[in-house]
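Appendix B. One record, verbatim.
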Amino acid sequence: MPYTHNCDLYLSVREGVVNATLEAVTKQRPSLFNYLTPWFALNQDRLCRELYFPPNGAAAYTPRDPITFGHGGNAANVDYAMQLRDCALDIHPFNIVGPPPEIADAPSGALIRATMVGRISVPVVTAEELLCPEGADVRHTPDYSGKYPPTYKNRYVSECFSVTTYALFSADYRACRTHTYLTLFCDRLEFVDFKPADLEEAVERTLLTLINAEILPGLWTALSVDPITVIDDETLTITVSPAVGEPKPMFDNDEARLYFDLEVA
């Protein structure tokens, strides 16, 4: 039976194609997976994972600003390095990424795994450096003007830490007034070995709300096509709608499948 037996348009993508593309992107555009503040950019020997410099000349990392605490001349920068590794897509049945028990029994869905490896570096603040920074006369109150910033001579560099995250996604057609949208939704978010458990759940719930309320709606697609001019003032309008008699968007059998009907007027 042809894929379009009960629909006009059928789209599918295999998880292997997505993962092969993802692997190619990590080699051709490593900057999408490595984020460094200035201190780590200058001290790359302190990174948890060695940077890869692609032969195409693309950047190896994306520069980021440090997190600043304090005011004016007493400000202290927290530098960090964030590197994403082991990113993969696994479409039900889950046989690639080894999902945690909380997700393993899901009847369908697209599972994304990513491990964030990180490190932070902060200055070791001393009272002497705050009270009398280099180049300034002796002072007795903090200088918030920034004229004489203290030069912290020592830094603390953390051990490498990592967090492996699993995100389970589903897709569906949802109607709103006169439009039908193809929507993507994150159903579960799980951190592995994140302690304590209560803090893990609080972080997961917060990020799940952020993903579903702020990030994913930007990917939702209205199932309609603007009129297309074919000859002079003649127009051709194509309307895309969920296929009648076919299931909703499916994530199973190691592939994502979509079924549509087309109406031409």
